Amino acid sequence: MNFSFTEPVIKGQKYTEMLPGGTALVCEGGGTRGFYTSGVFEAFMDAGIMFPYIIGVSAGAANALSYISGQKLRSRVIVEKYVPRHEYVSKRNLLKHGSMFGYDFIFKEIPGKHLFWDREVFDSADIRFLTGATDCATGEAVWFEKDELGEDFLTVRASCSVPMISKIVKINGIELLDGGTSVPIPIEKSVADGNTFHVIILTRNQGYLRKPFEYKNLAKIFYRKYPKLVETMLNRHEVYNRQVALCERLEREGKAVIIRPRVPLSVDRTTSDIGKLLALYDEGHEEGKQAIGNLSDRFIR
Q1: Strand, coil or helix: what is 88?
Q2: What is the pLDDT of residues 170-197, one digit of tens each?
Q3: Cβ-count burial of 242 within 10 angstroms (0-12 exposed, 13-18 middle, 19+ buried)?
Q4: 168-173 contacts at long range (C-beta below 8 A, 24 or more positions apart)
Q5: What is the value of pTM for the model shown?
Q6: Rounded Cα distance, 25 and 50, in Å
């Protein structure tokens, strides 16, 4: 194995505690807000716990890669060293390449040249990992299994491709964009798949309600060939708020634990400020540790 990387190699560690079948980890997206989720994953890795079923969209799916590969602090290195670079996220990328996030940099250059990703540990993890993207033709969700990730992370790349600021990704002839457009919080899919207990990581604080999409006319022009996609974009706030309500109901019924920021965030999905993102990461780590304390009575002996 070639370990010629610019950063010290962080080798993956296999989990020591698999949670029982029927237990799901459900991950919202959120662009760079998703580094809150990475902090939660750090707490899970500290405890050595893994979920038999993980489902995520957008950044929720992307950041789960380092959790499943068991590479502690790998995501933190990305925040410290690579998110601040214009190649990661910038208006310059949008003007030059048609995507605000530099997906070639994120999914090719970082894992290929700079920061080792332990594919061997990822592949050996005996779990179900689902990544969601949105079919531009139908406006509906398309789900990809763990073994469909491929060498180029194409399924996760499609899941992260935010409308208006990213290019469409084609897989098996299907044109795809951000999974969070059609399924902002994939809790309904997790329930439909038969899971009975859900650990849900959200990237917005309690009480947050999504407002209607502001750029309706622009979306209709931008995606005039994809009217179903536009319809999905315009309905996204209703779907998001419904899914939050379902998560909260499941928590009240003792069927879920929600982990989310405790105060309104000062970062948006394209924030690249190191200080703000590391603070968010650390908040996720602390709140993840507290959640493990709540889970331990139920699962961990």
Answers
A1: coil
A2: 999 999 999 999 999 999 999 999 999 9
A3: middle
A4: 168/136, 169/133, 171/133, 171/144
A5: 0.96
A6: 9
